[in-house]
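Let us work through a complete example step by step.
Step 1: write down the sequence.
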Amino acid sequence: MRKRSIVPATFVALLLAASSLWTAPAAMARSSFDGRWSVLIVTDAGTCDRAYRYALNIINGRVTYDDPSFEVSGHVDARGHVSVSVAAGGERASGTGELSGDSGRGLWRGHSSSSACSGHWEAERRG
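Step 2: predict the structure and record it as tokens.
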């Protein structure tokens, strides 16, 4: 039986800040990182599936995902530092990193009641 990955949206966690978290202002202006992004999430440690690719959006500096079964909360600051958390069922993941121009990279970590995984992510702007 194949082990289910820890919040495949770890992907988001996949996006992304230079290792410190910050509190986003209530309303953010349009960001130079707004748009569609393709994010590759790779598992480096743990029993999660090896890799996933997700289409994410950044709108006014906020990270969004078009699947309501995932709770995605994240933001990108003006320098491209990203912080994201994702939850689905009893699984949770978070990620930090940095976007620059049309690409980005960072680290993610996730867990459920029975396992834990971690890895890295890579992102590129689409369209």
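Step 3: interpret the result. Residues 8-126 form a domain with the Lipocalin fold (CATH 2.40.128.120).
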